[in-house]
TrEMBL record:
One of its GO terms (molecular function) is DNA-binding transcription factor activity. The lineage of its organism: Bacteria, Bacillati, Actinomycetota, Actinomycetes, Kitasatosporales. The keyword Zinc does not apply. It holds the Pfam family DeoRC. This is Transcriptional regulator. Keywords: Transcription, Transcription regulation. It comes from Streptomyces viridochromogenes (strain DSM 40736 / JCM 4977 / BCRC 1201 / Tue 494). Residues 4-59 form the HTH deoR-type domain. It comes from the Bacteria. PANTHER family: AGA OPERON TRANSCRIPTIONAL REPRESSOR-RELATED, HTH-TYPE TRANSCRIPTIONAL REGULATOR SRLR-RELATED. InterPro entries: Carb_Metab_HTH_regulators, DeoR-like_C, DeoR_HTH, NagB/RpiA_transferase-like, WH_DNA-bd_sf. Signal peptide: none annotated.
Amino acid sequence: MIGSKARRDRIVHLATTTGLASVEELSQLFGVTASTIRRDLAKLTTDGRLARTYGGAMALAAHPEASLRQRVGEAFEAKQAIARWAAAQVRPGETLLLDAGSTVGALAHELRTAEDITVATTGLTALQALSDVETVHVECLGGTLRPLSQGFVGPLTEAALERMTFDRVFLGTDGISPEHGICEADLRQTRLKELMARRADHVYVLAHAAKLGRRPFHAWTALGEGWTLVTDDSADPSVLEALRARGVRTVTTTPEPVPVAPRGGDG
């Protein structure tokens, strides 16, 4: 039997290469008790080498998670083009489900002119964008707030989802891979996205081109056949082709430059 330090090093290596492992799997792999593995995970979490998630599983964050505030200005024009296309798909009388995130938040702003729709959301950005719009009925799917993403997650959010169905759901993502699907920092987020997709007739993933092929974290939601990825026209064609091969429809939008106001004269 290997020593505790070597075992913990191997656990970190497994997290880096496979992304996730359960307490039971690790216990069988190393021939030690589940309580020993839990102590290992607690130590690795304290040392900052792993991030714990549900059920004894763990994920290694390859990159620090950016806050929503940091991401709002990223690829701004691309996000606006994606949001405009997404808003154009919505019809009066529909019930929509909006994820948290900056691109979905941009969609919420576009929906301010919509007529007679219902919007349920897990994101504070969408709530703020639509809170004063009389033609939009807003439902908040509350739960545990993640400050970095400004979105609600957890059992209360999941329970609220069980009471509704939707015409369309619009999901955000930290990255998207043809092999693995939608990438997020936290398994609570990926589980929630999976549940959200199950409750809607049409599923859209909104992601600007820099997120395609990106794997910053190790928590995933598998892509469903018939889902639609909406991105911008700088997306890598090989990634788009790989996504289409897996049954995902792809839509590319063309960002419009933000007009610069003319500078005033001297007199």
